[in-house]
Structures are given as C-alpha cells and as structure tokens.
C-alpha cells in the first residue's frame, strides 16, 4: 500500500470517513424473473463476480506499531457469505433506503474479518422515491484505501455488465517483508523523508511557483465549516439527465458538471441567504479530478482535489453558470500543469508509515467558529454512461453515491448518473443542516432557475 492509500486507513475516524458507497436501483419487474430475493441468491451472485477483481479476495496485512505500510494479501479463506446481506422492506417503511445508506456509511470495516467489501440488497421496495414498484437497491461498499471512486465505477460496470466481463489484469505480487526487515527500514525511510523535504523546500523558494487557478485559497466560513461532533444526515433527489442536457444547451460550451456545480452554488447561496448568513465574498467547492491520464502512478487512489470558485456573489444564475464554467476550465488546467510538472516528489509521498499516526495526533482540529475556511463544500461526480447495466438480467435504472462530510466541511454532494437518470445526494452534519429536506427542495428549484423554459418569476 502506498502512503497516499494508507492515509485513508490511518486517518479514518468518526469525523473523517473513508467509506465508499455506490448504490444502484434495479427494476426487477422489467427483468426475466423474480430477481435476487434471498441470502442464498446474494451469495450465488457474489460468487459469480468475485473473480473480476483482487479486491474481493485480498485482506489487510498490518504490521505491529505500523513500522511499515500495510499490504493487501490474498486470503484463501475469504468467506463470501459474510460479505452480503439481503433486507426486505417492512410494510410502510419508505425510509429504508435513506436509513440503511446512512447506517452503512457510518459503519467502519473490521479489517480483521477479511476483504474490505460488502454488497447489501434492499429488496421488494414499494413507495420509495426513485425506485420502481417491487424494485431492488444494491449498495456496494468499499474502503478508500483499496480503491477510489473511478476504479470502483469501472469495477461495478463490469459487475453489472449484461454480458460476461473481463477481470482486472493481475499485477505482480509484492513480497511482504518480515517484521524485523520492516523495522530495519525505518531509519533509512526517515533519512529519505528529510532529503525529500529539503529538496522540496529549496525548490519552493527558488523554483517555478506552483500553478494556480482562479479559486480562492480561503473563503468566508459558514455554518458548514468549523469543528462539530459527528451527526450525519443524508438525502437524495433525482433529475432527468436529458433535461439537464437540454438546459445546458442554452449555455454554449457548458458541461453537465458545470450545471451540477451551478445548481449546488445556487442552492447553497439561497439556503444561506434565507438565514441571513450569505457572506459578501464568494464561496468555493472542492471536487476530485482523476490524474490517471497524467501520471504513471500505481496507487489505488489517483485523484487530486480541485478547488473551484462558486461565484456565490454573482446574483444572475446565467452569469454565475458562465463564470463557474470558466473557473472549472482554469482549475482543470491548473491541476494538469501541477501534476505533469517535473521535480522532486512531495514530502507526503515519502512519509514513513510510523510518522503518519504522529502527524494525525499532532494535527489540530479546526476552530469551532472560524472566520475563514479552505473550502465551503465538496462534490463527487461519477457517470456510468448510457450503456446498459443489469443485475441478473433486470435493468439498472438509477444510481446514487455518498460523499461523507469531513471535519471542517460539513456539507457534501455526490452526483451519479446512468442512462437518462442522474441523482444528487447530500450528506451533512445534522447540526449544520437540520432541515435537509428543505435544502433538497432548494436544490431542485435551482435547476428551474437555470432552465430558460421555466418562468420562476411567478409565485
């Protein structure tokens, strides 16, 4: 495991989750049979797809005292049965999807019990928004130290492929060092870290300054920043992707991601303005950008955060969308330049394993009432394309994800699309967003503000 991947393991806490949730809505009635209904059905399905990726059979090997970064090693005794569950809806329980999604997002993996994956099936659903009558929701759960969102979407696309999919190519196995050998490397690793830090410091003082975008480096803090005790709330809304594409066509050059970012910007500023809390200065959003095409890295996590100005100080929705588009273009170019730049490695990539827990312990929590914050909110956007996905022959008609709120950023958004369906889910600290259903209403109305065919001047 690389240092970048291991950070997701070492620094995980109730304040900062490293759980990945990818969920899929299945129209069972449109399939060839009764669908997946029992635990035996779920086990049979899981056994049919575990050959697709090593993540299904690898368990964590961790060294005492964390003297070396962990390894993922094959587990010949991996028990598929214990990694799947089937839950039937109780009469009238229309909150089952929301409740189970929150529960699974807050339940950390026990790495001593085997590989870090789970499949949960909520079956025979009725009266649940976005789910066809009698449908199923499949929730796939992974850990960020083993896989990132882009790789997870590729894996699940193969899991749900209507035709047999190819497994991920095997990589060369790295021998696990013994405890004595791992411990003996610590002094050399500390020396290497010191050398990298010196080279990086020298380059920072004398070399080319880092590329930057137009995103502010600090923004006014809002109720969604500062330090709060964990209190997760979560909700979900659905959009017609064809409608979003139609609306964006009225703004030449914009993308679906531009539209989603503008929707979030409008919803965020409206919510804060209603409470008399909208800062005069603009707020910002962080979103991950894949660096797979820019580097030859072999880490499981090949994403880098991209900071984007939300232009919440621009009243006109159309003008705000235009500026957000320009800021997204500038941010992508900045990340590409920074990633491709040659030079010494960043010290974070050279941290010995024994140093990371110390850094975590020394890292100070944000203030409970800060004046500024590095970023206001976050967005993760994953598309499964227009190609068909199916579970045992029944079509997937929607999908959603969860981006957990983290310490200091208590409002996050996750967009997922498949076919003509797109979802936008919101995770927040309940103290910061006690009325999440109202916020979701504002999110839905934000699209109307951008739609030239909708007259929003009428009461």
From TrEMBL:
Residues 204-223 have a biased composition (Low complexity). Keywords: Acyltransferase, Glycerol metabolism, Lipid biosynthesis, Lipid metabolism, Transferase. Pfam families: WS_DGAT_C, WS_DGAT_cat. One of its GO terms (molecular function) is acyltransferase activity. Its EC number is 2.3.1.20. It catalyses: an acyl-CoA + a 1,2-diacyl-sn-glycerol = a triacyl-sn-glycerol + CoA. Pathway: Lipid metabolism; Glycerolipid metabolism; triacylglycerol biosynthesis. Residues 301-450 form the O-acyltransferase WSD1 C-terminal domain. Belongs to the long-chain O-acyltransferase family. This is diacylglycerol O-acyltransferase. It comes from Rhodococcoides corynebacterioides. The lineage of its organism: Bacteria, Bacillati, Actinomycetota, Actinomycetes, Mycobacteriales.
